[in-house]
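Minutes, project check-in

Agenda point 3 was the complex the collaborators sent over. CS summarized: two entities, 831 residues total, and the question is how they sit relative to each other. Sequences were read into the notes so everyone works from the same version.
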Amino acid sequence: MPTLNNLNMGDQATISHIEGTDAIAMRLMEMGLFEGESIRFVGKAPMGDPLEFEVCGCKISLRSSETERVHITSETKL
Amino acid sequence: MPNSTSDAATPEESDDRSSSPASKLTFALIGNPNTGKSTLFNALAGMKARVGNYPGVTVEKKIGSFQYQNCEIELIDLPGTYSLSPRTADEMVSVRVLLGLQEQAEAPNAVVCIVDATHLQRHLYLFSQLLDLGIPAILVLNMWDEVQKQKIEIDVKKFEQRLGVPVVAACARSGLGIDELKEKMLALFEKHDSENRPDSKPAHLELFPENFQQARSEISQVIQSRADQQIPEYLAERLLLDINGETEREILNGDESIAETLRSKREELKQNGCPIPAIEPRVRYGWAREMLEGIIQQPELPAEHRGNSLDRWLTHRFWGPAFFAVVMLLMFQAIYTWAGPLMGGIEFAQDKLSGLIIGAMAPGAFRSLLTDGIVGGVGSVVVFLPQILILFLFIAVLEDCGYMSRAAFLMDRIMTKVGLSGKAFVPMISSFACAVPGIMAARTIEDRKERFVTILVAPLMSCSARLPVYLLMINAFIPKESIFWGLVSLQAFVLFSFYLLGVLVAIPVAWILKKTWFKGEVAPFVMELPNFKWPSLRVVFYRVWDRGRSFLKQAGTLIFLTTIIVWAAGYFPGDRSELNQVMTLLESESLSEDEIAREIFEQRSRELSSQLLNSSFLGTAGHFIEPAVEPLGWDWRIGMGAIASFPAREVIIGTLGTIYSLGGDVDEEDAGLMEKMHSARKADGTPVYNIPVALSVMVFFALCAQCGATLMVMRQETNSWKWPLFSFVYMTTLAYLGALATYQIGIALLPVV
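CS then shared the predicted structure for the full assembly.
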């Protein structure tokens, strides 16, 4: 199943689930990364990590170690 | 246009409120980060908050109070959080406060939850947890100005009815909705005294499926029977939901049988379509969506945030770091140069005050206590204020406009290489000016482990107080030559190397700390990048004020005491009668004409001061440690200077001045002092100082924890004596070993001059 790591900059997708039951998984969910929400990849830090996403109208920054745990269903090019 | 303020309780209602039986109420204030919670706190309670720490944790306890319609209202500010799912002892504090279980905190009568109305759905997550606590709540929809700007429509009245709790639309920055909020806070308790919670609280909301509720009460019973402990329902809920959470640690307390029951309950729930912990966001977001259905109308496309294109520039591959470098340079420059005159002013005032005391009193122990102990002690505290205030002015502006999180975003990759995150960058860079505000700036790092590592390595950065020591040694002993084909002066190169030294040592230290005391799972770096906005003057002012006051109150007293102790160590014991006589003579009018006599007496007073220092506790300590500092190439005078400099490293210059009978007010460019150091001889006639000795002294000063203020601020920020003590030990050890290696390698390689 594709994860956020498979997105290209500008892509939008729908979150299907978050992997894991630890603090990171919970924090991701508490911050609005939750099944059914749509998420858009908006930018990268100069050294390629972390990455910037827009979810629930909010911009958040995620490290690539975190993005690989966010599974997505559909990719929709904007 | 959404209707906000007119939803307020009508004035007629408020008329009979003056007879309200409740005369004192306590409210807790909670909300996600970046919701304007502190602004709301200040808008309600003003600036007279009482601050302190909860015992055993690093959570700041902040309580404000205000009077409203004959009712005294206390407001407990809880730290900004995304949820009430405690994963650390620090996060547990909020839950305990709300449940009325926290030591040294009054159980609140109700809670005010502030949310960002432009991100309602997500922020209702925390609110739904609050409702599970069974405490009366008020919901504040903050950032109402943004709601209007983005043309979002929220039907506040209908929302209030559906939720069953009072809802207030507000803009804490402009003060909109504040009166309505106060009104509704009081109205909750209109017909009840503070002993009885109002029955207007929402019917206990049950979001979780039946099998979960069943498991929850079973867990409560198990704890009741096996551990003989009655736990609130919310904690039973957390026990089930938070795998390896703080609730498990505190309640289970290592009880394997309860842990086993918990595991089997979770497994059972998972088999029956109730996966732990995913069930929680599922039910809470489900509830939030349901609550907002038909209440909120968001325009199809989100209104164009002016931040979007700005963001592309500020996080751009090239322009992002370039702009950040300019901001940091400006900040650094400001701490160095703007603080300079202010610190000079403080020293000037200190001198004036001492002068007044000297003019009014005869020399003696009490006068010395007043001038060198008390005035000096107050000065040694206040002198940090300019740097703290300027740094926090910068930080407050950068935070309030939303840039700070971009800076962390930019720097994260580099900082992860040393096991820290992007948020540690600003505290670290600030520490090059002064570790005191640098350590205070580490508060922005949410993760405790990372915050502690940052605090512990920050004092290794070469602060401005090390500069005089570097300059004195470099000017006196490093030859004025050029290296690298005449492009760089050797002196400048040595100075630069010492700045680099701190960083190079900090990297392995941080790495080791992360592998030992602070190991554990990597903290999530999920960080909100709030929209850009103009910083609010009020918010910035409050923040700077807050930091300054907390420094003076918490660390200030300890720094002051340290200064007094060191004064006493340098003053006692010793027979000062001759010095006092000489000084009385010098201060009297009689000598003002006679230049030569004056010169003689001044010389005598300097000699006496030097002798007295030698025989004082400090001097004794210097002699005592001489065998230990000999391998560093030092004599007992340098050893004593180093000891005297433990409260504040810049003291070394004045101490050396006194030792060499030049008087205590020499500076690092003093030709007399350099001359004395050059001509200082050991008993066997060889010079005390040479290049290896100078380098060894500099390495010692670069790495040693010679700053009482830093240690006291560390104690303030970690709420424990353990960490300042640890820092002191590890830095002093490092400094000693570093100086030893430098000298031994130095004399092996460099011909002794």
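Noted in discussion: The longest helix of chain B spans residues 319-360.
Follow-up: revisit at the next meeting once the mutant set is ready.
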